[in-house]
Amino acid sequence: MGLIRKIIIGHNPKDAMAYYVGMRAGPRTVSAIMLDEEYLHRYSKPRYLIYVEGEEGTTLWKASIDTPCTIEYDLNF
Hints:
Elements: E1 4-9, E2 17-20, E3 24-25, E4 28-35, H1 37-43, E5 47-54, E6 57-65, E7 69-73
Antiparallel strand pairs: 1-2, 1-7, 3-4, 4-5, 5-6
């Protein structure tokens, strides 16, 4: 599976929250969005993890568990 570039979390994309790699989150920047495949395998529910990077390193910022999402992958043309 390719790298996730953007995730829109919510039922209606117009009213949902969007996160993308490179987005500023206070003093930090979203560095990665990943599908937690171990969680999917164990519980049969998707869980997306959003990581931020700052001076202290990379930290898990948010998790979306079994929520309607729209995923946009990085296509590197």
